[in-house]
Structures are given as C-alpha cells and as structure tokens.
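Lab notebook page, bench 4
Experiment: in silico fold of construct C2
Operator: M.H.
Input chain length: 435 residues
Purpose: comparison with the prior construct
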Amino acid sequence: MSQPTTAPDPAAGADIAAPPEGAEPSARQRRDFRRFMASHVCNELGSSITYVALPLTAVLTLHASAWEAGVLAAAENAAFLLLGLPAGAWVDRMRRRDVMIAADLARAVLLTVVPVAWLLDADSMPLLYTVALLLGCARLFGDVADQSYLPTLVGQSRLIQGNSRLESVRSGAEVAGPGVAGFFVQLLGPAGTLVGQAVTSLTSVALLGRIEAREERPAPRPSGHGGLWQEIKEGLQHVLHHRVLRVIALGTASVNLCLSGVFALETLFLTRTVGLPPAAVGWILTTASLGSVLAALVTRRLSMRVGAARLTWLSLLVTMPFGLLLPLAGPGWRVGLFVMGVLVQSAGVTTYNICQVAYRQTVCPPHLLGRMTATMRFLVWGVLPLSGLLAGALGELAGVRTALWILTAGLAATPLVLLCSPLRRMRDFDAAPAQ
C-alpha cells in the first residue's frame, strides 16, 4: 500500500489538538464537539427538508415525469462523479473548517433561488437541475471536509463513539425533517419550503465559527511533489491497494446504485401511485427515519459484542431484503409495508456506515484523510447520477412500481459483495490485512 511521506499533516499546527489516545477530552474540546454536532443537526435537518421539498417542487409544481424526477436526482449527485477526486486534494490544501463554512454559505444562497423564481413565475425544470447540481457540489466539499475534520476533534480511539453520536443527531434530524417539510409544503408550497434549509445552513455557519480549535493552513506541497494529479493518484492508490477499503468501496457502490434509484422514485410512487398528499409523504419518511435513530444508538454496543468487521456485512445481509416490501405498498394498511421496509433498511445502512466510516478514518494517515474520503465518495457516490437516470428510465418504460421491484431486488443481493471477501472471516477491523 502506497503511503507518501512528503505531505504535511494539516492537523499538526492546530492550536488545540485532539485528546491523547486514552485520555479524557478537556472541557474546551467537549464544547467544540457539541458545536460540531449542533452544526450537523442544522445541516441534516435542512437536507432532510430539501430531500422532500425539491422533488415535490418538481412533481407538484412543475408536473415532472418519472424521467425528469430521475434526471433531477442525477443532477444532485453528479458532483461526486465530476469533482469527487480533485475535491479531496483541494480540501487537503485548505483548512477543513473553512471549507465547511463556505459550503454552508453556498447552500444558503442556492436555496433562495428556487422560491424567488417561484414568486416571479420563472421556475422550470432546467432551473431545478442547475440548483440541484450546485447543491451537490456544496455537499461534496462540505462532506469531505466534515469527515476529515472529525479525527482532529475526538482522536482515533473515539471514532466509533464520535461517528455514532453524529449519526444519531443526523438520524434525529431525518426524523424531524420530512414531517416538517410535509407540513410546510402544505402551508407554503414546495418552493417556499426550501427557505428552511437556507436558514439552517446559516445557523450551521454560526456554530462552526464558534469552534475554538484553530487549524493552521496546510504547508505548501514541495516543488517536486507532482501537483494536483499526483495527489489524486495518492488517494486512489491508498484506497485501491488496500484490501479491505477496496471491498468496502465496491459494496457501498452496489448499495448506492440501487438505493439511490429507490430514493429517486419514492416521492413519485407515494404521491401518484399510492395517492398520498404531501403531508402524509413527509410523515411516512419521518417514521421510517426512526430506524436510523435506533441504529445509531445501539451500533457501538453491537460492534463491541459482535465485532465491527462482522457487523459491517451482517447489517446489510439482515436488512436489505426488507426493501422488497416497498413495491407492495398501496392505499390503506398497505402503506405500512412501505414504512416497515424503509425503516429496517435505514437502520441497516446507518449501522453499516458507522462501522465502515470509523474504520476508514482509523487506517488512513491524517494528511491523506481528505483525499481518501473524496476517493471513496467518488467510487461509492459516483454511481448516483447513473442510478437516477436508470430509475427514471425504468419508471418510464416499465412503470414506477415495476421499477421499484427491480431496484429493491438488486438491493437485496448487494450483501453478496461483502460476503465474497475477507470481511466474512473477520470479527474486528484491527485484524484487517492492508494488502
């Protein structure tokens, strides 16, 4: 496994370092982490609102077809394919907190565009595609910086605990977000509801600005270092030459290919096929998010009992087949089948993410964190634009319900990728081979 030694550690010059391994964090470090978590609450609440309001704007206001809904989902995720690799190298050259603040400010500005266009009767699907694409760019840079910043706040030994706490607040925001979005869509219309995330993004900026730990700007790369493309190559080599990271990337990409297609069609399915109003759609997605909350609360304990490596594949093997309940949904009591399916699936995905993200942060050298995170995002989220287009095409050609059958069947098969790998024979990640 290639590990370059010339690049500096961007956390090395921080005024307040992460707590030593095994030591209790100071009161100041606890405050910093609480502010970091609070900024997560704001961002995830806003993202959950947008997750409901943006597709509803397309479906209810602009009467989007299944294909257009798929293109919208593809546009929102295209940044991970187009900019995923250079984003990590750029983030490793900058202060990570500054990147998160800039991403939040960009989101706040972009989310005011749609309601203003709606008021001026100038909204259109091309406008939504453009806003979705730029929101995806902001999300990409914010997420890469976010995951790279966490180890400097909590230290290596507390990454499972730190990621579990962040997942719990993320999941809590997901619980509240769709219900809030559904209520305000009924009250203000889909476009007007997008103002909500603009407010939460600005609140996140204020919270991040109050973190007391300061990062020094990373030192310039040596003149013979090779530039941006050499840094991208180092990130790719770290992931692709690592036996476990390579398997995690392939398995996660398989899940995302199918799951993102389901996400692209679920609003259309619930409103047109099942016949639910926007408020009901919001509350259904809220109830389903409870699975993520419960998983975030118990994953640390489960990983200690079962083993983090074993829990990584077991979480998907047990939960992904429940997705087959989604296309069985219909009016009346059959709506409960949809809720049950996404509730169990969200629990499985949350547990899987906590385990594999903590492992990635543990095995990666600090100076490569941004590039490793961006490389993983490129590999596992680069399939999302394809997934949106695939879902849209399936919905147009075969119908939305049949498209869901195909996508959820694929999702049920994704754990096979991890089962046919060294992960199946491991209990904990500390025994994972690098090559």
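Observations: The chain has one domain: 27-210+228-431. Residues 27-210+228-431 form a domain with the Growth Hormone; Chain: A; fold (CATH 1.20.1250.20).
Next step: discuss at group meeting.
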